[in-house]
Amino acid sequence: TFNGTWKVDRNDNYEKFMEQMGINMVKRKLAAHDNLKITIEQNGDKFHVKESSNFRTLEIDFTLGVNFEYSMADGTELSGAWTMEGDMLKGIFTRKDNGKTLTTTRIVQGDELVQSYNYEGVDAKRIYKRG
Ligand code: MYR
User: Fold this and answer.
1) Which residue's alpha carbon is at the smallest distance from atom 16 of ligand 1?
2) Domain extent at residue 35
3) Ligand 1 centre distance from Cα of residue 51 (Å)
4) Which of 5, 78, 84, 88 has its CA 20 to 30 A from that of 109?
5) pLDDT (tens digit, 9 = 90+) per residue, 15-55?
6) Do residues 34 and 53 make contact, with C-beta atoms less than 8 angstroms apart?
7) What is the CATH number for 121?
8) Contact (CB, 8 A) for 70 and 86
9) pLDDT for 98-129, tens place per residue?
């Protein structure tokens, strides 16, 4: 289950990913240590996610398979949806500014939540522990 509070423990290739996303170096340095914490509450196909980081706090509601809007911490707007494939959440989002696609997955592996990202050929991961 995804339910619970998760704190980022480590990143894999996240700076390269952010660079591909066009995020400048100063913001990348800050974002690599953003102390991101997410709290996930799933009820059937409905999710409520509380996000908090050094940058902001935010609450998001979405339903599997239903498009919604999400603004990244730097203001970049995305539109897309999460779906469930087996035990994996799979998100396909489109950047509103350039129409390019960002894909992301979440899966619980042991006591960790692994979120993977892909944008324009660059893959990254953020790995969370229960907090
Ligand atoms: C949520 O489920 O937490 C809300 C929806 C998340 C949308 C997709 C996340 C992509 C965030 C990309 C951040 C990358 C920064 C370069």
Assistant:
1) 18
2) 4-130
3) 10
4) 78
5) 999 999 999 999 999 999 999 999 999 999 999 999 999 99
6) yes
7) 2.40.128.20
8) no
9) 999 999 999 999 999 999 999 999 999 999 99
